[in-house]
Amino acid sequence: MKIIDTHSHMYLEQFDSDRDECMKRALDQGVALTLLPNIDSASIASLKQTVKDYSHQCMGMMGLHPCSVKSDFQKELAIIKDELIKGKYVAVGETGIDLYWDKSTLDIQIEAFKEQIEWSKQLNLPIVIHARDSFQEIFDVLDEVHTSKLRGVFHCFSGSVEQAKKALSYNGFYLGIGGVATFKNSGLDKVLTEIGTERLMLETDAPYLTPHPFRGKRNETAYTKIVAEKLSSIFKMEIGEIADITNINAIKLFNLSELE
């Protein structure tokens, strides 16, 4: 059995002392491929180096995280767009809207989000959406700009049944499911049983949102298997079936090669 972690920040400094060991553990747990979303211009070099060092395991995305959208965001976008065009990336991301940390930047977050959506359309790449306390704002943007050319994933989905159904009403979109599904009181298990497995993908968001029983410690891409096991329990399916369904979805969305 092989698994794809569709969202992990294994290039961050939290892994500088033991990245080799982490990536070996990932392979040992069946995590054959890890997709790395960018944060901002400062993270490009470490992301690229990680993809180079683990070229058999990692592929990159390129975008500007909403928490990095500041007054100089147009300068950041210019740097990131240049890298996106000249590099080899499987998606635009991560981007989106985050109103948990700073509501005052909503207007420029929307502007940056819309610009990256346009890149997605122009380059025929999927978009990876970060949505924290911002589903309605993101839906408002997508209602305005969504076309048949746009496809993507709501990364680390933790919303309601209604929000899940709205997200999936956009043709070509999926839900990324991570450690939150293992949290005792998240309620995500009930949401997932309502919507089924057809448009789900696995992720970790390492080093964040560590699944139970390691919650409170650093997350890593090897823990994608724990998420797969949780979905296996929720849907009463074999873990291999969950891996197959989510892998097919990831391969389709990100235009990946089949896992050997």
Q: Report the mean per-residue pLDDT as an integer.
A: 97
Give the uncertain stretches in residue-range form.
none
Summing up helix and strand content along with how strands pair, one would put the structural category as alpha/beta
**Number of E-state strands:** 8
User: If you consult CATH, what is the topology?
Assistant: TIM Barrel
The CATH architecture can be given as Alpha-Beta Barrel
Q: Distance between termini? A: 10 Å
CATH homologous superfamily descriptor: Metal-dependent hydrolases
Q: Class in CATH?
A: Alpha Beta
Percentage of residues in strands: 5-15%
What is the ordering of alpha helices and beta strands? EHEHEHEHEHEHEHEHH
Q: Biggest sheet: strands side by side, in what order?
A: 4-5-6-7-8
Q: How many strands, what sense, and barrel or not for the largest sheet?
A: 5 strands, parallel
Give the overall shape.
Answer: globular
Please count the helical segments. 9
Rg result: 17 Å
Secondary structure: helix percent = 40-55%
Number of domains: 1
